[in-house]
Amino acid sequence: MKEKILISQRRKQFNNLDKLPVYDRSLVDYSRYNKSIGHAGVKYSMAIQATRGCPYRCFYCDVYKTTLHHHRRSVDNIFDEVKKIVDLGVKRIEFIDDIFNVKAKDFINFFNKVIKSNLKVKFFFPTALKGDLLTKEIIDIMMKGGAVGVNVSLESASPRMQKVMRKYLNIEKFKENLEYICKQYPEAVTTLNTMHGFPTEKEEEALMTLNFIKEMKWIHFPYLHVVRILPGTDLEKFALDHGVPRKAINESIDRSYHQVTPTLPFSKKFTEDFKIDFLREYVLKKERLLKVLPTQMQHFTEDELNQKYSSYFPTKIKSLKDVLKIAHITDDELKIKCLDEKEIEIPNLKEKIKKVYPVKKTNPDALRMLLINISTYFTKDRNISEYDVLEPPLGLIALLSYVNRVFGEKINGKIIKSRVDFDSYQELNKIVDNFNPDIIGISTMTFHKNFFHQAIKNIRDHGYKKMIIAGGPHPTTSYNEVLEDKNIDLCVIGEGEATLSEIIKKLIITDKKKLHHDDIANIDGIAFVKDDRYYERLTSNDLSEDIKESKSEEVSKIVPIYRYSKRK
Ligand code: B12
Ligand code: SF4
């Protein structure tokens, strides 16, 4: 099976992001997401992507597989979108970039523009800023410009581990900046990410990280994530080279970050004691909570705080009230109330979005494309993941915004997401039946891979025979594994806009019939299997004559050369 998997040439990444269409926010119904907590740990926020790719290569991270190079939108382009979103009435914006502040000049210019325009909006950086690239000047401008959720990632305070993981953080500078933020800007809600349990990590090195946290007295939300080894990363290779069994890696892959996994280099007792120490001596310390909670309550609603605190210790802490009880904090000691949801609501968002984003027309015979995001379990399974957040699928919004621009009336696309648009396989089937797509595109992360395969199996079992293609982080990093599933016709690797457009073009040319592997072979950025899985699914009646011959004249013209290469 494996030797049959072919990958075409690597798709060239977009280097001028300003030329991509502005993400069309009318493609999903934001009002169905806004009441749920999103990526930044808050409700009613909207995500912005200012950059793609990361210039760093931390050994545990696989972002470079989707976007190898780091490219940025111009400051004006980012600002224009931010302004457009603020004009809709959105009061919270989150940047989903891997590191938004990597180019200090742009970062400063952006905030200067925000300050000059007096935009009333709060910014969150859930994917973290690079802490050692900040300076006092940058911090001052960012805070003046409305930054609230200031996340930074240390991962480890051990200089050796920094080298091993190729993060090379300037720990002193990082510390100095974090201290400055905590001291000068207590109103900033700081989050510090750390990781616990890299292969070869020594107990004393783990303790260095814990001590670092303890020395920073006023961090709002410090996190100790148990290391998880993503497939295909250098960390995976490092782990295998240092004796971590493959079985242990596989078993850990879909565990949540707080669970003790079999890949840890420490005894279970060490990690458990470590975590208890962290919780007791830091997170739940009364003196600290009395200082940080008033700021948190001013910025977050009660259920946002409930979720933040329950992520520390889901079995014991379910809410802010539990935290107060455990820390022996009485109502008299904490008089302030949590943020009222009314203050962040966005009145008439749907109507405003309709006005701002042009309404798209479609021909009755337009190609119908259903894009499905599998990244949140159905309500009945919500306990599988401790990190239960709902975020509109920006990757699919990016794709549909692009293909809409390319194909206009010839394409009729629809985006749906698990839990939000279908909360069971029956509901999913109903959407597929009603929409009757000519092609289905599905995206997922490795964390949800079983759910993803199950959902696709369900669609096939229900009778859908046309093309199903997969894209996004998991199909990009693990196309070999994904294509073992015969229900999937091909994987799109990395950025999907141009690749998907070529696939659609070929489908339109072949009159929405199936694409043979010869048709797709010269499309850059795909992995596929040179077998007849596609045709096996069809009965003779499903195939028109030209498709039976597999290539019409027109298609042959478009596929002049076969330059796919056999994967090693
Ligand atoms: C926002 C975000 C989230 C959000 C929302 C995700 C969503 N599905 O909408 C939330 C908070 C839910 C989330 C959660 C997690 N995330 Co996350 N997240 C991100 C982040 C920062 C940005 C994603 C994004 O919007 N990118 C912008 C869009 C435009 O890009 P894109 O989604 O990649 O889409 C492009 C291509 O991938 C492709 N494409 C995507 N889908 C499809 C589909 C088809 C059919 C085609 C053709 C192409 C295609 O085309 C798109 C346009 O070019 C990425 C990091 C990153 N740089 O991408 C991590 C990332 C996706 N997350 C990751 C992880 C590990 C997680 C968690 C598992 C972590 C955890 N705590 O357990 C959880 C999931 C658990 C859970 N319970 O949900 C990993 C995934 C790695 C992997 N191999 O799966 C990433 C890559 C970060 C990393 N390296 O650690 N995440
Ligand atoms: S972890 Fe962050 S800094 Fe490191 S490579 Fe990934 S995105 Fe870049």
- Helicity level: 25-40%
> Biggest β-sheet, characterized?
8 strands, mixed
Number of domains: 2
- What is bound: which ligands? cobalamin, iron/sulfur cluster
Write a structural description:
The chain is α/β, with parallel strands linked by helices and 568 residues long. It has 2 domains: 241 residues, pyruvate-formate lyase- activating enzyme, CATH 3.80.30.20; 218 residues, Rossmann fold. It is 39% helix and 13% strand. The chain contains 24 helices and 16 strands. The strands form 3 sheets. It has an 8-stranded mixed β-sheet. Strand 8, helix 7 and strand 9 form a beta-alpha-beta unit. Helix 2 packs parallel to helix 3, helix 7 packs parallel to helix 10 and helix 15 crosses helix 20. The chain is globular and about 70 Å long. 40% of the residues are buried. The C terminus is likely disordered. The protein binds cobalamin and iron/sulfur cluster. Iron/sulfur cluster (SF4) binds next to loops. The site of cobalamin (B12) has 42 residues, from helix 1, helix 15, strand 12, strand 13 and helix 18.
Entry keywords:
568 residues; alpha/beta; pyruvate-formate lyase- activating enzyme; Rossmann fold; 2 domains; 8-stranded mixed beta sheet; 6-stranded parallel beta sheet; 24 helices; 13% strand; globular; binds cobalamin; binds iron/sulfur cluster
Short description, anyone?
The protein is an alpha/beta fold and 568 residues long.
Topology record:
Layout: E1 5-7, E2 45-48, E3 51-52, H1 63-66, E4 71-72, H2 75-87, E5 92-95, H3 104-117, E6 122-124, H4 136-144, E7 147-155, H5 159-164, H6 171-184, E8 189-196, H7 203-215, E9 221-226, H8 234-241, H9 246-252, H10 268-283, H11 286-299, H12 302-310, H13 320-326, H14 349-356, E10 367-374, H15 394-407, E11 411-417, H16 425-435, E12 439-444, H17 449-461, E13 467-471, H18 473-477, H19 479-482, E14 490-492, H20 497-509, H21 517-520, E15 526-529, H22 533-536, H23 545-548, H24 553-558, E16 565-566
Parallel strand pairs: 2-5, 5-6, 6-7, 7-8, 8-9, 10-11, 10-12, 12-13, 13-14
Antiparallel strand pairs: 1-15, 1-16, 3-4, 14-15
Helix pairs in contact: 2-3, 3-4, 7-10, 15-20
